[in-house]
Amino acid sequence: MRKIPLHWQIFIGLFIGILFGYFFTDYVFLISWMGTVFLKLLKMIIMPLLLFSVMAGIINVGNPAGLGRLGLKTISYYVGSSLAAICTGLLIVNLMQPGVGADLGFNQPVEGLAAAGDNFGQTLLNIIPENIFKALASGSMLSVIFFSVLSGIFITQLQNDYKNMITKGVNAGFDLIMKITQFIIKFTPYGVMGIIAVVVADNMGEEGALGSVFLRLGKYMLTVIIALSIHAFITLPLALRFIGKVNPIKHFKAMTTPLLTAFSTSSSSATLPLSMTALEKEAGVSNKVTSFVLPLGATINMDGTALYECVAAIFIAQAYGIDLSAMQQVIVVLTALLASIGAAGIPMAGLVMISVVLSAVGLPLEGVGLIIAVDRILDMFRTATNVWSDTSGASLIASSEGETLNTSISKHS
After folding, report:
1. How many domains does the chain divide into?
2. N or C: which end of the chain has fewer CB within 10 A?
3. pLDDT value at 40 more than 70
4. Which residues are within 8 A (CB) of 235 and not within 5 positions of it... i.e. 6 or more apart?
5. Domain that residue 252 falls in
6. pLDDT tens across 171-215, in order?
């Protein structure tokens, strides 16, 4: 018997959860435990996953001092483009407010929101952990990211014997956490079924409330797609045109094959060989640039995913009637940016990363159940955006290195 793909299993779980919550409201407790167990498993894996994925991501990039001019340009572009993507998502989700009106009635005190106060200076101080083990135990997300980044950087500066030994240990730890994560992800359909059944049952008493939830979910999808489109068709082309002196239309035509492949497969890694071929053969970028910039981008550059996480977190806050202050939204931005380092190696990165971002500001993880059903559809758009950003960065950096490209503005067709 052919195995059913995970995204279809999730759709089936969602459908069963809706039916169960609608027709068996008084018996929803029979399957609600599935959602509870799934959320507990997610919470269990978040901190070790964050610790090892960020450290592994930094270590695999290498010593910043040894990357040279090309490496520094590449990292600067990737950080800048990811930040621009997240800020675009933040702007659009606050303008469209897709979750406002869903009113899921989350009345419990939200741990973490008080800690993420309006004092920017205090927030920066709180990033530095007094005790890393306490930070891990209490779920202080930014503190763990800070420690992971710092550790990753200094591991690359150790003597080769020690560096190789610790690198093997970190990569082994990351592989172990990946095995556990893959195991947890297998239970996603059951978790979604339990979570959605509770959401439906809780809203059965209010006329029109259930319809409002699904209407808002549709608006959320539209918000993500609009934000991704702005980044892909306005921000990145402007960077190509005015910074890289590259014709964005020519570049887009040259990248048609890898972009269509990324959209249909939702896999950046599967698209990597096609992206490298298109850049070298169609755009005229040298192998020196493509062989360095693209693999590095596959490790640390996830514009579309980071934007998506930011929008999803704000949407969930709006849906639960939780008002995030400007400072709390800044923390969402920072977490989405920093957690994206090394996230490319995480299966179903969207699900795992949104759990990280929600935990950073203390938002309810139950919100994952609302958005996971449409994650596969949005994954196609954000993966294409990730690949578009990687290839745009390679062309921009090649141009800055003095290369004459087939897509350069000065080059006639």
Report:
1. 1
2. N
3. yes
4. 81, 84, 85, 88
5. 6-400
6. 899 889 888 888 888 888 898 888 888 878 876 655 555 666 778
Q: Six-digit token pair at 262?
A: 């990324």
- Let me know if residue 413 belongs to a domain: no
Q: Is residue 406 part of a domain?
A: no
What's the rounded Cα separation, in Å, for the pair 53 and 47?
10
Q: Is residue 79 part of a domain?
A: yes
Please list, in sequence order, all residues whose beta carbon lies within 8 angstroms of the beta carbon of residue 187, skipping any fewer than 6 positions away: 34, 37, 38, 41
Interval 208-250: pLDDT, tens: 556 667 788 889 999 999 999 999 999 999 999 999 889 999 9
What value does the mean pLDDT take over residues 124-140?
81
Separation between Cα atoms, residue 88 and residue 210, nearest integer Å: 29
Q: 326 is written with which tokens?
A: 């400007």
Residue 87: inside a domain: yes
pLDDT at 57: 76
Other CB atoms within a 10 A radius of the CB of residue 411 amount to 14
CATH of the domain at 370: 1.10.3860
The rounded distance, in Å, linking the Cα atoms of 140 and 162 is 29
- Cα(203)–Cα(195) distance, integer angstroms: 13
| Dist. CA 279–CA 54, nearest whole Å | 28
Instruction: Take residue 180 and report the two structure tokens written for it.
Output: 């556990």
